[in-house]
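Throughout our pipeline, every protein is held as a single compact record rather than as scattered files. The record that follows is passed on verbatim for readers who wish to inspect the format:
___
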Amino acid sequence: MAKGKQIYNGKAKTLFEGPDEGTIIQHFKDDATAGNGLKHAIIPGKGALNNRISSHILTQLEAIGIPTHFIRSLNMREQLVRKVDIIPVEVVVRNILAGTICKKLGLEEGEKLPEALLEFYYKKDELNDPLISADHIVTLGWAEEYELEEIVDYALRINDFLSGMFAAIGLRLVDFKLEFGRIEDEDGFVSIVLADEFSPDNCRLWDMETGEKMDKDRFRRDLGDLIDGYEVIAKKLGLIPQDCTVRKENGDVDEKLFERLSLIENKYRVA
């Protein structure tokens, strides 16, 4: 599928105009960043794994009634999505204490919270995405009160569903980040949808038996090869055969593996 002109180039993804009005082609890069871009590396295979994992999870969320911007996966690194008016708020859901909340509040990592904790952050890299309240969001006009209520409801439903899904394959969903936006249909009706991605880049997943971190913390904290963790997640989800690896001996991505997987999925895709 031919891409249009580039419209955005971020730390982990590049966006291009899609083939039809209101569509975008989302390209997953191999770039890994941490500390708001202070730490950076190119990790072959990361983009392909994130594309595959995110496509699967967004499809699963659609199946339980969570509207998303996802249309379909196009190839190893790209997916077709709907153009969304992004709300400049990151929604973080925490089930277990980890990451910045421990550092900022002096809390011990690993403590299970009595219930899911929701946090809101203003999407602004130059301000390091500051923590904000629901009142900030409504008063400053980033979202209407009814929209925020819908976002919170979606976030909690997503947490319930994915916590169970990952627990069933031996992974603990520690926390995750979501982004939402607005889509207007042909009749002018505006609805809230889940946008961006859901991958090990924006969630924490720990092995339930060993506690090993399988997510981006492997890169942030130098805990091991990033691809090894992401590949474990993909295999547990049934997205990659257990006897396969995404990288060849020379470190390059095994593109033929992803081509075979794509052919199989296209063969059995229901129109």
About this structure: The chain has two domains: 6-83+227-268, 85-207. The longest strand covers residues 171-184. Helices lie at 46-63, 100-105, 134-139, 145-167, 217-220, 226-236, 255-268. The domain at 85-207 is CATH 3.30.470.20 (D-amino Acid Aminotransferase; Chain A, domain 1).
